[in-house]
Amino acid sequence: MSERETAWAVITPAGELAWYPLAAEEQVRELVGGRFGALDTSTLNPYESLARKVLASDVGAVYPDDYPANPLARLVITALSAGYRTQAWRGTVALVEYETDGPEVLWPGEMSPEWAEAITKAVRRGQDNS
Fold it and tell me: What span, in angstroms and rounded, lies between the C-alpha atoms of 25 and 43?
């Protein structure tokens, strides 16, 4: 898949990174939501960009058997957020870059090559450190 088609960076509890096109939003939401389908979107670091988001299970801590710990996501998200988001993540998580119109955040869009590269580098560092 070319960088122009990339919209979703998905990190599994097994420590794997997978890329999905914008059109796969429903599939990504199912992967992240799991059996319960409860999702939450959080801004990665509001001081840097309101467009960069984390999509994660909203009930992962309540159902740990269904949403195993995701230590790679914790390392990657902490690094990408410059330490703003440091909590433990459970289950599969996705990183996405939203379209914006000035200060208004609209909807998921194609990921910039710079953001895709930053994610890839953070994942590699996290995998090397685990």
Answer: 18
List Cα–Cα distances, 46 to 31, 101, 114, 129, in angstroms.
Answer: 25, 16, 18, 27
Query: Over the range 51-90, which residues count as b (16 or more CB within 10 Å of their CB) and which as e?
Result: bbbbbbbebbeeeeeebeebebbbbbbbbbbeeebeeebb
- Mean pLDDT, 10 residues at a time, the chain of 130 residues: 73 96 95 91 92 93 90 95 94 95 92 94 88
Query: Taking Cα atoms as reference points, which of 106, 86, 87 lies closest to residue 96?
Result: 106
Per-residue pLDDT, 3? 46
Cβ neighbours of 10 (radius 10 Å):
21
Domain boundaries, the chain: 3-129
